[in-house]
Design brief:
six-stranded parallel β-sheet, 10 helices
């Protein structure tokens, strides 16, 4: 079978397509014939040898933490009736997904309802789990102002919809008119271009000078710090990423003076565990037409380097997938 492998840390060019033996399911495992493999921004950072939190993978490695496809075979102790089912699944160790075939634990499988396209379900596997968990941790109330950074991305687009569905007033922040158009289409009441120097003034104007009650910070760095500055007194500042290359630095004493609760990056550790229930909820919401996965582009497996480059260039709205 074909896989995408990283043999050294570096730019997208280090992603190489190679041929390796087909895997075999062990006890409690299945083999999935991959149709789509999901990519997230953290994978591009790990490929470069930088980590915002997770440990760096040991070289060489096959990236990819989640896939969607058909169950091809099962190992000992697994129901043979699973063969042929459409599923999405995390891969053990959150690696190995950029391949034609993957081994997964049967307990990690989430079946995909007929009403949902497999590509959309794959886009919801990791980001759906994370979005549902972040949303629950933030305890959003109806009528609150919610600011979502990177709101046109795979995760941000889901947070916009979940907050809107909870009755919140959503401010979607993204870079450029095309992305803001996507965000507005997802139900954001206000959109702001955070590539503009006055974007925080627009947030304050929209909220009557008070600021956002909840901020979802997936960018970090200077932009994340600017977002913290427009978090309302008594609000919540939820950190889930560092696409800028560094996490947002918040002085605990400053947060305490303003009564802002900082929900730190450590929340992701809990969300990366057993996420089946949250993923199932996201998929059920999508199958019912209440949540939409935004799939920006798909690339063939052998063009994984182009997919990574597009993500790093912020050239894709929503989720980027590899199609096998």
């Amino acid at each position: 079978m074909r896989v995408v492998r990283v043999t050294r840390f570096g730019g997208p060019e280090v992603l190489e397509t190679q041929t390796v033996p087909d895997p075999v399911a062990g006890s409690g495992e299945v083999v999935v014939r991959v149709a789509f493999a999901e990519i997230n921004f953290i994978e591009t950072q790990l490929r470069r040898g930088f980590t915002p939190g997770p440990p760096l993978p040991e070289l060489p490695y096959v990236p990819g933490g989640g896939v969607g496809g058909l169950v091809l075979s099962v190992g000992e102790g697994v129901d043979p009736g699973l063969v042929g089912r459409r599923v999405v699944t995390r891969t053990p160790g959150f690696g190995g997904g950029n391949a034609e075939l993957v081994v997964a634990r049967a307990a990690d499988l989430v079946e995909v309802p007929d009403e949902l396209e497999l590509a959309d379900a794959t886009a919801l596997l990791v980001d759906g789990n994370t979005a549902v968990g972040l949303f629950a941790n933030a305890a959003i109330q109806p009528g609150e102002w919610v600011l979502v950074e990177a709101a046109a991305g795979g995760l941000g687009s889901l947070l916009v919809q979940l907050a809107r569905g909870a009755g919140a007033r959503v401010i979607g922040a993204a870079g450029g008119a095309a992305k803001l158009e996507v965000v507005a289409g997802l139900g954001a009441e206000v959109t702001v271009d955070y590539s503009r120097p006055d974007w925080t003034d627009e947030v304050l104007d929209a909220t009557g000078g008070r600021g956002a009650d909840v901020v979802f910070d997936g960018v970090g760095g200077d932009l994340g710090r600017q977002a913290f500055e427009v978090t309302a007194r008594g609000g919540r500042f939820s950190v889930h990423g560092a696409s800028s290359g560094s996490t947002t630095t918040v002085d605990p004493e400053e947060a305490a003076r303003r009564g802002v609760t900082v929900i730190g990056l450590e929340q992701l550790a809990a969300l990366s565990g057993d996420g089946n229930e949250r993923t199932e909820r996201a998929i059920a919401e999508a199958a019912g037409g209440r949540l939409r996965a935004v799939v920006g582009r798909t690339f063939p497996l052998e063009r994984a380097a182009e997919a990574h480059a597009a993500i790093e260039a912020r050239a894709v709205n929503g989720k980027t997938l590899l199609e096998v």
